Amino acid sequence: MADGTRDGKGRYTRTLTTAARDAEAAALRARGRTFQQIADELGFASRAKAYEAVQRAFAAIPSEQVEEARRLDLERLDRLIEYHSAIMEREHVTVSHGRVITREAGVERDKDGIERLDMDGKPIPVTEDVLDDGPGQASAREVRALIERRAKIIGYEAPARTRIEVITEDAVEAEMAELARKIALNDARQARPADTGAA
Predict the structure, then answer these.
(1) Most CB contacts within 10 A, which of 87, 124, 162, 178?
(2) Entry pTM
(3) Where do the DSSP E strands lie in the chain?
């Protein structure tokens, strides 16, 4: 599905319909939907197309609203970082089939260090919970990803090296024509009925 109609030079332009759909995609994103969920709900061909729609919507709104959306994203990220950091700091026991796994850690002793015995005259074992590092490790990965995302929003990551090149108008037109060709080819594939029969 194309994101607009062609102008006199064969380039795509946004229509009121596509602009409204872009805005709806941005609203869904602001409510926490994933790009795949947005694509499924609004009929985009892929989550990449849904992402592009959200970016177009953000580019079209005033800078104050962009800043507010950025602030809300940062607040959500901070809450998630706080949540996963708390998981990292807690101890987690190992559970199997609904039961906490324990191991022997010695025997009971009295205040003089003498082993306590049970009714059969055997030492009374002392057990301890087996700890599970899995939840903490999973949360550590989440925190790392969230911090990286936060850094991109704020913009304090080290700048990437860029290559400066001069792009002529002819090169831009050629690139846009090629992109239009690919979109048309993709649209044709999307419109082609699925093969329902076997040879």
Answers:
(1) 87
(2) 0.43
(3) 5-6, 12-13, 95-96, 99-100, 102-107, 125-129
